Known about the structure:
Its cofactor is Fe cation. InterPro entries: Pirin, Pirin_C_dom, Pirin_N_dom, RmlC-like_jellyroll, RmlC_Cupin_sf. Keywords: Iron, Metal-binding. With 337 residues, the chain is mostly beta strands. It folds into two domains: 129 residues, Jelly Rolls (Sandwich), CATH 2.60.120.10; 129 residues, Jelly Rolls, CATH 2.60.120.10. The protein has one helix and 27 strands. The radius of gyration is 20 Å and the shape is globular. The termini are far apart.
Amino acid sequence: MNKQAIKHQFPLGFQWETQDPFLFCVHHEDHFPAGNEEMGPASDHFKGRHMGDDFIIKDGFRMYHGKTVPGFPGHPHRGFETITVVRKGFVDHADSLGAAGRYGDGDVQWMTAGKGVQHSEMFPLLSETADNPMELFQVWLNLPQKNKLVEPHFKMLWRESIPYLHFDDNKVFVELIAGRWDQYRAVSPPPDSWAATEENDVFIVNIKMEPHSSVTLPVSDSGANRSLYFYEGSALTINQTTFHAYTGVFLNTDVQTTLTTGATAASIFILQGKPINEQVMQYGPFVMNTKAEIQEAFEEYHRTKFGGWPWAKYDQVHDRTKGRFAKHADGTVEEKV
């Protein structure tokens, strides 16, 4: 019997099912209104919300843990990496190492939490006269035990550096965020990432397909896990099987797999990587290998706050006029037009 491409299918909720080495994936899509002088929504949008813990869509958007500006005020991480893929809107970053940034509209931030860092991710509503749509993917990628306590580090994959691939007479558009697609290679990830070793076959892409288009995914015999998320559109055919929107599919990487659209466009996000195959012990923002290591993480965080918080407030946002930039912990500054 021929091996099938499809191993498992499942509906997509707010948090998407993942496979080792990935721990978490969520798709944030919010239709934020025009911003006020504080870069948050006007106060009349706050009525009926559970401010500081608002994950229910109201008026087209969520505030998440933000009370003035939407987003996620300062919080700790240890033992894994966050990959933030921003399709629309902007994210303001600040962290306990003194690093900061503003990125969005196609940029990606790849942060290795390692031995511990606090960071905030706020969504400033920069326009005071027009809506501020936000769309992003947040992905958690595990670290092997040997790298769980490396020094924290983040790297910017600016949209100008990300390879954009076109197939099927330009009807298929691929953002190559990690890994390789045939002869094309993504920007290198942070040095201590699971993705930094090529044999781990980490592959992350966002695919936009026009109606009546098709593309064949690269084949790999590395033993990697491949997860496909069909998050936008009405129908997508994978080989001979058709799926409806907001469906996830686990695929075999060593079977030729062709994606085909019908009368409507489709958007697909793919996470792939060779499994780490280590015990995972997760408690909130910490991901280690044992209960004892989780306890150590909490004790160290309470003792040191992973370097403290050098900013005026935990929901730190940058000046409205500030462009895209990254200030790293070593003082290096990148600025984009």
